[in-house]
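Changelog entry: the CAAX amino terminal protease self-immunity record was regenerated in this release. Current contents:
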Amino acid sequence: MREDVTFLRELSTIHTESTKMGWHIFWSVILTYIAFTIITAVLTAIVGGITSTAFAYSLLTGSVGQFLDACVVFSIVVLYRDVRVSIVQSIRFSALRQPSTYFYITLGFGCLYIISFLMIEFWQFETTAANPVNMQRHTAGGWQEVFWLIALIIVGPVKEEVMFRGFLYRVVANRLYPVAGLFGSSVLFGIMHPGYPVSSVLAGVVFGLLYQRTNSLAAPILLHMSWNAYVIFST
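Regenerated structure tokens:
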């Protein structure tokens, strides 16, 4: 009984701490991310100057770029305690024990498939041909292929869901309205995916709605991983 009371107190403490994350934390994190990204880009440019421009470009756009960006994101999570507490609170792996979660994940996957079909195949608003990540995959082999798969199927989805749904959505939704958090994080998600801007915005809405419905960041992470794996192995 005492353990249950202690556990409830810990949950209450986490909830109280997560609500402290206001606009000052929001803008601090954004500016820190921009600063870290600029530093990473400068260091990459220096490496490119020493080696070759093509090598620097591959670092920024390929699987290595995914890992570098993930390092920036998770460094920020470690650096800001309020962000770290909020992310931990939002994961909720317990949601994966509920059958309804997998129903919503399957429904979300179907929505992503329809979005992809309409944007790429039917209306042809977007194309996969110019995506540097896809081009890198076709030229990769051996351990580079494994590295690429880990980056796109595991690292990328975890990093992006932590950044867009775990942080951006939660702050804006808590401080303004859930709709503002949903569409704000989705638009930024689309901006970060210039190869598929419209599809990415709509996909961001799907991921955000899944997070809203399940109240767990684990659900959109799993959907994101599944979708990336499907796209990779179906092309």
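The mean pLDDT is 83.
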